[in-house]
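#help-structures

NK: newbie question. if I give both the sequence and a SMILES, will the prediction place the ligand too? trying with flavin-adenine dinucleotide
OV: yes, paste both and it writes out the complex. here, I ran yours:
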Amino acid sequence: MKYQLAIVGGGPAGYTAAEAAGKAGLSVVLFEKNSLGGVCLNEGCIPTKTLLYSAKVYDYAKHASKYAVTVPEASFDLAKIIARKQKVVRKLVLGIKAKLTAHQVTIVTGEATVVDKNTVKCGEEIYECDNLLLCTGSETFIPPIPGVEEVDYWTHRNALDNKELPASLVIVGGGVIGMEFASFFCSLGVKVTVIEMMDEILGGVDKELSALLRAEYAKKGIKFLLSTKVTGLSKGENGTVVAYENAEGAATVEAEKLLLSVGRRPVMKGFGLENLGLELTERKCIKVDEHLQSSVPGVYVCGDLNGVSLLAHTAVREAEVAVHHIIGKEDTMSYRAIPGIVYTNPEIASVGASEEALQKEGIPYQAVKLPMAFSGRFVAENEGMNGVCKVLVAEDGEVLGASMLGNPASELIVLAGIAIEDRKKVEDWKRYVFPHPTVGEIFREL
Ligand SMILES: Cc1cc2nc3c(=O)[nH]c(=O)nc-3n(C[C@H](O)[C@H](O)[C@H](O)COP(=O)(O)OP(=O)(O)OC[C@H]3O[C@@H](n4cnc5c(N)ncnc54)[C@H](O)[C@@H]3O)c2cc1C
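OV: that's the protein plus ligand as C-alpha cells.
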C-alpha cells in the first residue's frame, strides 16, 4: 500500500489536508483513531458553540421583555440540549466523511505509528508514503495541584456531556474555554466561580475589553478570583473544596463540580514521533518552516501539534499551505491576522497585534475606540448592552490590530483580519459599500 501522502490525525488539519490533496489528484491515506473531525468537531469548537447557542436562546427568552415580547416562563431541558449537540456533531462528521470519500481519500480507523518518514504502521498493516503529514492535535493539561489525584474533576469533555446541572461550579482557568463554559453554566442558573492566576481573564485578549466582559458576567452572578493561585484540592461534604491564595490571604471555596481548564498541550508521544528525530524549538515544540515542513524534508506538521496557535482555523490554513507545498503551488503561512474569538454573550473577537505587543516592539500606534452604539443595527438588537470596537492604527493609517466586544463580533472581525493581512489603511474601508444597517458598518466610522 503506497500513497503520495499519509496523514496521521483526522481533525481540522488532517481532514482539510486530505480533502485538498485528494482534490489535487494525490493518492491519500488518512489515519484517525477516534472520530473524524478531531477535537474541534467532536469535543471542541462545534459542541461548545451548539450548547452556547441554546443558552443564548434561553437568555433571549428570559429577557424577551426588553424587546417588548412576552414569554410566559422560559425553561430548558439539558438532556435535550445535549442530544441536539450530539446530532449537530454527527451531521458534520458525516459531512466530512462524505467529502473525503468523494475525493478518493482512504480513511483508516485505527491508531497509527510512524516507523520512519516513509512508513506508517496501523494494526498489522504497513503503509508507505512519499510525504507524511502529522496532525495529532493537543490534549488537556492537568495542572499538578496538590490533591488533584484524590478529587473528581471535569475537563471540557465531562462539561459537554453532563446531563444534570450542578448547583455550583468552580472553574480553574479563566481562559477562552473556561469563560465559554462559565457563560454556558451561568446562563442555565449554576453558581459559577472562576479562579484565574493572572490579573485578568482571557490572557492574550485586549485587557480593557476582557475587563468589560468580566464586569458584564459579574453582574450576571459569576464570582471572579483574579491573581489567585489554587493551592490544593480536597473532597468536601457537598463536592470539592478548592484552596487558594491571593493578596487577601488564603481561603477556600466549595462547589459541587470542579472544571479544570488551564490549557492544552500538543500530543507528541505515543505515535512514534521520536523515530523521525525532528528538530524542536526553544519551547520544545516541533520546528516548522513557512510551508509547515519540519526539519526532515517531506514531513509536515500542522495544527495544534506544532504548538503555534492551537486554533482550528489556523490548523485549516496550515494544512492548505502544506498541501500546496507538496503539489508545488506557491503559498506560505502567515500568522499576521489569526482571529481569536471568545463565544460568550456578548462575544469578544480580536485579530492582529495587541497593544502590549506593539508597545513591546516600540511600534508607534493610535488606539481608536468607538462605542458599538455608533451602529444603528447594534442599538436595535442589543437593548441595554454596551460594546466597544477598538482599532490599533499605525502612524500612516495602516490597520495593525482590532478587538471588538459585542455581537456578532465573531462574524465581523474578519473585516479587520483581511485589512491587517493585506496591510490596508483605515481609509480603505471607506471605499467599500457596506450593507446598511449592519453592525460591520462600525469599521467605516473610524
Ligand atoms: C472545549 C474546546 C473548545 C474549542 N473551541 C474552539 C473554537 O471555538 N475555535 C477554534 O478555532 N478552536 C477551538 N478549540 C481548539 C480546536 O479544537 C483545535 O485547535 C483543533 O481541533 C486542532 O485541530 P488539529 O487538526 O490540529 O487537531 P485535533 O482536532 O486535536 O485532531 C487530532 C486528531 O488526531 C487523532 N490522532 C491522534 N493521534 C493519532 C494516532 N496515533 N493515530 C490516529 N489518529 C490519531 C485524534 O484522535 C484526533 O482526532 C477548542 C478546543 C476545545 C477543547
